[in-house]
Amino acid sequence: MDLTLYVKFFLGLVAIINPFGLLPVFVSLTSHQTELERNQTAKVANFAVVVILLVTIFAGQHILNLFSISLSAFRIAGGTLIAIIAMSMLQGKLGEVKRNKEEGREASAMESVAVVPLALPLMAGPGAISSVIVSSAEHNTLPDLVGMSLAIIVFGVLSFLLFRMAPIIFKLLGNTGINVITRLMGLIMLSIGIEVIAAGVKGFYPG
């Protein structure tokens, strides 16, 4: 087992997923949730990321081949989803909650942002998935796959602890600051979505 390989793989995940950069996005997406719900969202999102990347390590390329899906097509789909979510953020509608009188105290009707868009495609997006697929293809021995799997789990734990700092940001910014960040991050996310779509289109038409 090559420790240097796993450290490099871990740092690659940090660079590609960039949980530090996603922290303001997490704050914006969970602005309508209580502290307990935000912690649960952080837990579910990072757990989903770990599961997605672990599945990708062992079966990513096979799944894409099974459904005849190219990475370019995946990029276009992910970019489109990011753009749709970004438009909702720009209009300030992401946090809208639809409840009837009987559901006044229940959170079951509240929008879930843990899996979509946090885990997929913002965190475990085309970049992270394609990177994991390439790494697992180059180092496909069982010890290497296990080592990279452990690196993914460590990343998920550290990312969850980072997201737990969101309440501190909440207290510093307040509702007005969160609303400003929500629209600003919506604009940035829309730009990211367009870039991801463009990368997918270039993959189809490299010339």
* Class of secondary structure makeup: mainly alpha
SSE pattern: HHHHHHHH
H/I helix tally: 8
In total, the number of strands is 0
- Main sheet: strands, sense, barrel: none
Amino-to-carboxy terminus distance:
40 Å
Give a structural overview.
31% of the residues are buried. The N and C termini lie far apart (40 Å). The chain is globular. The model is unreliable at 95-110 (pLDDT under 50). It is built from 8 helices and no strands. 78% of the residues lie in helices and 0% in strands. It has helices spanning 3-17, 19-29, 35-66, 71-90, 114-123, 126-138, 142-163, 166-204. The protein has one domain (3-96, 114-202). With 207 residues, it is an all-alpha fold.
What keyword list fits this structure?
207 residues; mainly alpha; cell membrane; transmembrane; membrane; Multi_antbiot-R_MarC; transmembrane helix
How do the strands and helices of this protein lay out in sequence?
Blueprint: H1 3-17, H2 19-29, H3 35-66, H4 71-90, H5 114-123, H6 126-138, H7 142-163, H8 166-204
Summarize this structure briefly:
This protein has helices at 3-17, 19-29, 35-66, 71-90, 114-123, 126-138, 142-163, 166-204. With 207 residues, it is an all-alpha fold.
